[in-house]
Write a structure and sequence with these properties.
With about 525 residues, the chain is an alpha+beta fold. It is about 50% helix and about 5% strand. The chain has helices at about 1-5, 15-20, 25-45, 50-60, 80-90, 110-120, 130-135, 150-165, 165-170, 175-195, 200-215, 220-225, 225-240, 245-250, 250-255, 255-290, 300-305, 315-330, 330-345, 350-360, 415, 465-480, 495-500, 510-515, and strands at about 95-100, 105-110, 200, 385-390, 395-400, 400-405, 410, 485, 520-524. Bound molecules: protoporphyrin IX containing FE. Belongs to the cytochrome P450 family.
Length: about 525
């Protein structure tokens, strides 16, 4: 045995030939490490050169900062978790400054600080930093989500909130939601008939995508199989928005011509495909509306946008940007929440049974599925929270610190909604906390209660909240009503509590797409 170990090199004695040879990387490391440590010391102790740097230097910040990369090395693969841990250690009053590359970024991790940013000084923080990639993918950032705060954003936000996402409009799409739910139930039923596991993570993105396709462009759209292409394009956007983008951390470097060309090349290709596709759809609607007025059918988003085109001075590119936004913001977000909720419920069978009993009690006997009429008492669906980047537009006082203009601000909604000083069993999935009888039953996700901000708050708050809640609730209620679920051994390979997506420093839902677990479930 000893001989075998010695031969394999695991049992070498000091002084033997192989241990006395210095591995090739050691010498450069011995030189580089002290140099880096020296530079890190210099970076953290150097006197601030400008008034802006002086203000930033006042903010609590982790000491271990390197030149060039700043604090990037401290942010792990789950940024929301790293940022929470760093803020607990180095932050003060829910505020902490990080240098992500060359970008000063204020991380906000307490309800009080979030309220100061998103309510008290909402107008100062209502913009976002901008990027070359979003300029390409969203037609000069002329959509709503990526548009800088200002007149154009106000105009587009007004269209979206008064024409596309009103409560009345969302209700009018009820039959589309119920139809798509029915199709998913049939698919699950068919899989059940042959005794196979159901791949919910595979089904749910198509469910939310298909709803959005019909709402954007009408029934024909899906029948022609175009929904698959939309899914592909939305995925391509998510990858571009969610990957590591040099520009987010080193904006001045990304302004160099060569670098910019490399960063933008892929985005140009993707938007060309979006453009061709959306132009065909819009042209189809234009010619249809010339021959067919007021046929009483529910109008889709393209119809609506064309009908207000002149009133709001919309260009063709503006219309396309809004449509891309609706897909990007409105599909993965809801499917991931559904996936997350189901995965968590399957891990807690007693809770699943309890919620199932509640859903089943509300549905009249003999009904094959839950409709939106049956949903008055549907269980609350807790939604995980995202990290959302904002940009400080003018020097602003927050809790005694002056935040200089140009600082990026990340609201770590995930950390806030798991703060042990606000929530009991803060890290656990406990939907009962939102049910009658619990001390937090009245916790409000409408952006008024800063303990819980799944849809954000203030001027940039999610305008798709009603849309999302309607989609999530009807699907979740039916999944629970129709089937009893259990998990095949070893099929859930990631703990979703820790992996649920948050955004990285670009206004994006990037890590939603990093949410790569696979929820396949058996049902009985
Ligand atoms: C569970 C699902 C969803 C969640 C958790 C969610 C969450 C969010 C959050 C946190 C923001 C940023 C708020 C801020 O900057 O403070 C946001 C923005 C936005 N969301 Fe949602 N969202 C969801 C579904 C939807 C849906 C279904 C739509 C559209 C159909 C939508 C459209 C938008 C748009 C357009 C914005 C940008 C608003 C602006 O910048 O003015 N979202 N969402």
């Amino acid at each position: 045995m000893a001989q075998a170990l010695a031969q394999s090199g695991l049992h070498e004695q000091p002084g033997t030939a192989s241990s006395s040879q210095v591995p090739p990387l050691v010498v450069p490391l011995l030189v580089i490490c002290p140099l880096l440590l020296l530079l890190a010391r210099f970076a953290t102790t150097a006197k601030p050169a400008t008034p802006r740097e002086k203000l930033l230097a006042e903010l609590p910040s982790p000491p271990s900062r390197f030149p060039v990369i700043g604090h990037l090395h401290l942010v792990g693969s789950l940024p929301h978790v790293s940022l929470r841990d760093l803020a607990a250690k180095h932050g003060r009053d829910g505020l902490m400054l990080l240098r992500l590359g060359s970008v000063p970024t204020l991380v906000v991790s307490s309800p009080r600080a979030a309220q100061a940013v998103l309510r008290t000084h909402d107008h100062v923080f209502a913009s976002w930093p901008g990027s070359a990639v979003t300029d390409i993918l969203f037609y000069g950032s002329s959509d709503i989500a990526f548009s800088p705060y200002g007149e154009h954003w106000r105009n587009i936000r007004k269209i979206v909130t008064t024409q596309l996402l009103t409560v009345k409009k969302v209700r009018s799409y009820r039959f589309i939601r119920e139809h798509e739910v029915r199709l998913v139930m049939e698919k699950i039923g068919e899989t059940s008939a042959i005794g196979k596991a159901v791949d919910l993570s595979g089904l749910l993105p198509f469910f939310t995508n298909d709803i959005m396709c019909t709402i954007v462009s009408g029934k024909l759209f899906k029948e022609e199989g175009r929904n698959k292409l939309f899914r592909e394009l939305t995925d391509a956007n998510s990858k571009l928005l969610g990957g590591f983008n040099l520009e987010d951390y080193f904006p001045s470097m990304a302004r160099l011509g060569v670098v910019r060309r490399v960063v933008c090349a892929k985005a140009e290709k993707v938007i060309k495909r979006w453009g061709n596709f959306l132009d065909t759809l819009i042209d189809g609607h234009v010619s249809k509306s010339l021959v067919n007025h007021g046929d009483g059918k529910i109008s889709d988003y393209i119809d609506v946008l064309l009908s207000v085109e002149q009133e709001y001075g919309l260009t063709r590119d503006n219309i396309k940007a809004i449509l891309v936004d609706m897909f990007q913001a409105g599909t993965d977000t809801s499917s991931i929440v559904l996936d997350f909720a189901m995965a968590k419920l399957i891990q807690k069978p007693w809770l699943m049974t309890k919620l199932q009993a509640e859903v089943r009690r509300t549905v009249p006997r003999g009904n094959h599925m839950v409709t939106e009429d049956d949903q008055r008492d549907a269980p609350a669906t807790p939604t995980p929270c995202a990290l959302v980047p904002h940009l400080c537009l003018a020097d602003c006082d927050i809790q005694g610190y002056t935040i200089p203009a140009g600082t990026r601000v990340l609201i770590n909604g995930w950390a806030i909604s798991r703060d042990a000083s606000s929530w009991e069993r803060a890290d656990e999935f406990v939907p009962e906390r939102f049910m009658e009888g619990s001390s937090t039953a009245t916790a409000d996700y409408n952006g008024n209660d800063f303990l819980f901000l799944p849809f954000g708050s203030g001027r940039r708050m999610c305008p798709g909240m009603n849309f999302a809640i309607s989609t999530i609730e009807i699907m979740l209620a039916n999944l629970m009503y129709r089937f009893d679920w259990k998990l095949p051994a070893g099929s859930m390979n990631v703990d979703m509590t820790e992996s649920f997506g948050v955004t990285v420093p670009g206004r994006r839902r990037s890590s939603l797409s990093r949410y790569s677990h696979h929820t396949s479930c058996f049902f009985t």
